[in-house]
Amino acid sequence: MATITVRGLDDAVRDKLRVRAAEHGRSMEAEVRQILNDELADRPDDRATLGDLARRLRRETGGVELPIPPRTEEAGFVDFSDHL
């Protein structure tokens, strides 16, 4: 089992944790453990990918129509023979 230390915890948060732990009949350490387990254990990885975010943005905004300019010239040929 891993051990972590949380530094810089606000006093008000610590006090709320102490009250919550007492309400559940647990130590503060056991309460923190329970909170972390409830929030993180056995949950699918719900991090959104870039594609997920792009789809959500398109869905929420209706998408964007970008103008496609006409081609004015054909693509040229690139000669890489000098680099071989």
Automatic annotation (TrEMBL):
It comes from the Bacteria. Residues 2-38 form the Antitoxin FitA-like ribbon-helix-helix domain. InterPro entries: Arc_rbn_hlx_hlx, FitA-like_RHH, Ribbon_hlx_hlx. Pfam families: FitA-like_RHH. GO terms for biological process: regulation of DNA-templated transcription. This is Antitoxin FitA-like ribbon-helix-helix domain-containing protein.
